[in-house]
Amino acid sequence: MGEWPSQVIKPGASVRIRTAPDRTGTVTNQLEGSPRRPRVVVNFNGDGPEAILFSNLELIEQRRVGEYERFERGLFGGVRHLRKEITYRRLSGKLANLIYSLNTTNTQFFPYQFKPVLQFLDSPSNGLLIADEVGLGKTIEAGLIWTELRAREDARRLLVVCPAMLREKWVEELANRFGVSAECVDADELLTKLESIKARPHQDFALVASMQGLRPPRGFIQGNAKHGAAKLGRYLDGLDGDDPLLDLVIIDEAHYLRNETSQTNKLGQLLRTVATNFVLLSATPIQLRNKDLFNLLKLIDEDSFPFEHSFEDSLYANAPLKDLREKVLAGVATTEDFKDALSEAKWRSMFGESLQLEHLIDNPPTEAMLKNPKSRSELADQLDRINPLSKVITRTLKREVNENRVLRTPRAVVAPMSDVERDFYQKVTEVVREFCAVNDLSTGFILTTPQRQMTSCMAAACRSWQANYQSLFGDDLESLLHELDGEAEFENDAPEPMGRLVTELAMIGQSLGSYEALKNSDTKYEGLINTLKEYWSQYPEKKIILFAFYKDTLHYLSERLAEDGINSLVLHGGMDKHEVIRQFRNESQFNILLSSEVAAEGVDLQFSSVIINYDLPWNPMRIEQRIGRIDRIGQEEERIHIWNMLYEDTIDQRIYDRLLDRLDIFRNAMGSMETVLGEQVQALTKELLGHQLTPEQEKERIEQTAVALEKNKQDQERLEREADQLIAHGDFIQKKVRAARELGRFISGEDLFIYTRDFLNERYPGSLLIQSDKNPDWYRCELSTQARAEFGIFLKNHYIQGKTRVLDHAPPELFFDNQQARPTHAVERITQDHPLIRFVTDTLRSSGDSASDYPVHAISIPTLAVPGVNLGVYVYAVTRWSVDGAMDTEKLAYAVKGVDCMDLDSEMAEFLVNTAALKGTDWHSAKNEMDTEAVADLFDDARIDLDETYNEYRQAMMRANTDRIRMMVASLEKELKSKTARRQERIDSYRQSGEEKKIRMIKAEEGQKAKLKTRLTDRIKEIQLREKLEIKQKPIAGGVIKVFL
Which DSSP state fits 216? Predict the structure, then answer.
């Protein structure tokens, strides 16, 4: 080889292409081309070898070149560098203006479902009561909170507690919508899991358990009961001073905990002490001055809500701020409004001195600021942060989220009884009343069970009674008790004298006509079949859901429909409900589903628009739950039909006509009336069945109840309106969610792919992501020896070896899709919390505080991709603001200056830069198309704007941090005082008892008390140290963006 052609660019040198400075590589000793215009082979990072003219290359200087100088010299990187930097910052898990659960789950996007997520993140109690109306997706909202916690805090251990009938639904929902593999456990299995955490603190799991199965028996602390719930209760009770074992506990149908004397409430208390975060779900309406509400809030944060009126006081203090915020957002607030509202809020304040409030009082906004949309948004955020205790509850109503609400069309299908049916009905009613009078029985169970079976289906009831005692109850017992009093803590034993009544009923069936006679004169079934045929003649493909309480009724109807040539599916307890519903939804041969109440609870059936109440629930809450199966978000029909099957001239018909229909419960969700109405109607029906009343007397008694309930309804609606006005955020939070989506404040699968590909190319040469032949969205990952070794060490150090198969001998292909879903064997889904992504981020973090060597970029983007942004050239700067205090958080701040056009506000700046990173292309000729020195000066102006905004942000965060620290310390001091007092009371009671066994327990209790005191005192000191806030600003990126036609 002759003389080397260049004295500057030599083998081994790091170089870049002059016209594309982001393309960097290493010079080899290979030459190509003629000696007159020689080319040298350069190994480009990520792109392999390429022969380039020496004149097109320049050396990469070893000294650091600052951002301003890069602008002056035109040393621009490209789209991939900007995108990589933004993705890296977002994956920190701490960005305050990013919603990590947005677009990352297998759920339809509804902005209101992220309201609980944002409320939860702001709640100082690490807890939330989600009290949305039925059908709005509380399960999804809780799953989004778990997704957010996994991304932000690396949360690993989840426990869901729900009624037994909802366990399977939770397992399915977590797997299909959130990619979480959960398992059902009983009390013994949960106890084993919790005990294992101390030995293996890094393990992760998701468990689902029933509240019935976990609920401790009364006297479990002193008792020696060996069954699982008692042992679990004693274990949890003894952990008062220990660190939390669970990252999140979700309790579904939390209204079962609202009675503070119940053991279900006691279970909630025990679980709260071992959970870092706590979420309650309930459709129960929120009313102030309500003991039930207080009992639920007390579970979430006992120290912040020590008295029944605590939450009301909190809302009362916050009311002027809430009203002012709404005025500010609407653009109608004046400076005087601002001063008056803040003075009122200060006078009402129950939180001591608030630095945030004082600052706003001393620095009220000008009239100009109150007219500026950006300033109004910032003011609304400041007002929203002042009283975080108001964020412990979130409630969304259907009318707030669905302007085109589904119309409910109820219809009563009344069957005139045949002679056989009338004799049977009258005799059974008479026997039940006499039996209860003779045996001095007045319980709802005794009175209503035979009557309910008969009015459901006389033929089926007769056949059941003539069989045997067990078939009358058996598996239906829990359903009956749940229906009669869904909140009772009951033992699964039928009342003692019931067997004698069953014998009498069986004799009635035989003496007044056989099952065949009742079947042949079944007027209710005739009404059903005629109604079905009439409907299907107009809508032949429509699916219909029929509800009945009794399995005997369901099977009887299935037999009768089959005889009439109609294929049906039956669903009741003990069956695989999800398989049955899948079959019903997807197979055209089945147009009617015959379902029991309990089996359908918690199931989504909005693909149907007709339900039939073949028997009428006497508890209106059950009616709403039935209707709520199809009246849900996702119902595409404008109108749903509710057909109520009734026998003529019965108590059922009189209650329907004179009470339920009059109160309009089939057309409108009852809200706060459901509980009251349920109690009143149950009491009424027991009275009607337990006394010898004439039809006229029955009507009079029903009329009295209806009048009283109408008055009660008006009072309840007024109370609920008052609460909703104080709690609701209008569309304030929904607007924030929509803005986050529109501004691209989330991480996409494409972001993750490019982030990983570029990292592997640059960090581990020889590592490849090769597109699959099976699916263009799938990739085969081939890691270099060094990459495999270092990734393996990372997995071991973080105890997540079992979370990926990338290092297997025959690894699956990878699908970069940031949507959580059920894992499959064929492909491994790469999401934001996947071990491979965590490895990339951790490696970048350990090698410096930047993801890219090119902090300045030149990008072009068509105007169609950025609606609202004018044509022209824009200069941008992006900085990261990090806060380390009561809450560790980060924020990316954007500033954009126009070269030949208007500057952009912060939101449009963020939109332009994020969209350019996602949809832009490299602007290679940027250096030659503009005055780089003038652009550098504009970049400096953008940085000055960010510096000024940063100073304002810093002061605001210091005030918010001090207020939050003081609130947290006060809460912990209350907790320390109350819990040590309770321990001391227990010690004193043991000492006074004189019992040797209890006296021996004193030493253990004193140890627990000391442990508790140490833990909480240390926690208080730790929090107080964080009052000294550490806030940092770091430049992240800058560049130019050309918006062209």
Answer: P
DSSP three-state, residue 522: coil
Nearest to 1035 by CA among 859, 875, 877, 916: 877
Beta bridge partners of 278: 127, 249
Identify the CA nearest to 247 among candidates 156, 163, 179, 175: 156
Residue 790 tokens, joined: 């270092």
pLDDT tens-digit readout, 714-760: 665 655 555 554 455 556 667 778 777 777 778 888 889 989 998 89
Chain centre to alpha carbon of residue 543:
30
- Checking if the pLDDT of 858 tops 50, the result is yes
User: In this structure, how many other beta carbons lie within 10 angstroms of the beta carbon of residue 771?
Assistant: 12
Cα 650 to Cα 426, 661, 682: the distances in Å are 9, 15, 16
**Helix, strand, or coil (residue 411):** strand
Q: Cβ(437)–Cβ(693) under 8 Å? A: no
Separation CA 882–CA 888 (nearest Å): 8
287 - beta bridge partners? none
**How far apart are the C-alpha atoms of 678 and 620, rounded to whole Å?**
5
Contact present, 778 and 769 (Cβ < 8 Å): no
Task: List phi, psi (to 5°) of 1044.
Answer: -125, 165
Distance CA 291, CA 746 (A): 40
Q: What is the mean pLDDT of residues 948-960?
A: 86
CB 456 within 8 A of CB 616: no
* DSSP symbol at 656: I
What is the widest separation between alpha-carbon atoms in the chain? 121
* Strand-by-strand arrangement of the 768-771 sheet: 768-771, 778-782, 813-816, 827-830
Q: What is the pLDDT of residues 140-159, one digit of tens each?
A: 999 999 999 988 888 999 99
- Provide DSSP, 341-366: HHHHHHHH--SS--HHHHHHHHSPPP
- Rounded Cα distance, 572 and 475, in Å: 10
Task: Look up residue 118 and give its two tokens.
Answer: 């944002």
Smallest Cα–Cα separation from 403: which of 142, 107, 734? 734
CA atoms 901, 906, 908, 909: torsion sign: positive
Tell me the C-alpha distance between 701 and 704, whole Å: 5
Residue 129 has pLDDT above 50, yes or no: yes
Would you state the pLDDT for residue 840?
93
* Token pair in block for residue 395: 């409630």
Who wins on pLDDT, 694 or 181? Answer: 181
pLDDT at 716: 59
Place of tokens 């609980």: 116
CA neighbor of 1016 nearest in space, from 967, 972, 966: 972
Token pair belonging to 818: 């940031």
Element (H, E) at 570: strand 568-571
Instruction: Calculate the average pLDDT of the chain.
Output: 82
The reply to whether the predicted model has a pTM over 0.70 is yes
Determine the Cα–Cα distance for residues 975 and 361; give it in Å rounded to an integer: 32
Q: Tell me the C-alpha distance between 946 and 940, whole Å.
A: 10
Would you place residue 851 in the very low, low, confident or very high pLDDT band (cuts 50, 70, 90)? low
Question: Secondary structure of 1014-1039 in the HEC alphabet?
Answer: HHHHHHHHHHHHCCCCEEEEEEEEEE
Q: How many residues does the chain have?
A: 1045
Ranges assigned E (strand) in 224-318: 246-251, 275-281
Helix (H), strand (E) counts: the chain: 40, 27
> Which 3 state secondary structure label does DSSP give 281?
strand
Instruction: Pinpoint the alpha helices (H) of 545-655.
Output: 551-563, 577-586, 597-600, 620-628, 651-655
Residue 330's CB: how many other CB atoms inside 10 A? 10
Backbone angles phi, psi at 609, to 5 degrees: -125, 15
DSSP annotation string for 413-475:
EEEPPPHHHHHHHHHHHHHHHHHHHHTT---HHHHHHHHHHHHH-HHHHHHHHHH-HHHHSTT
Given this model, what pLDDT does residue 468 score?
Answer: 55
Contact between 599 and 549 under an 8 Å Cβ cutoff? The reply is no
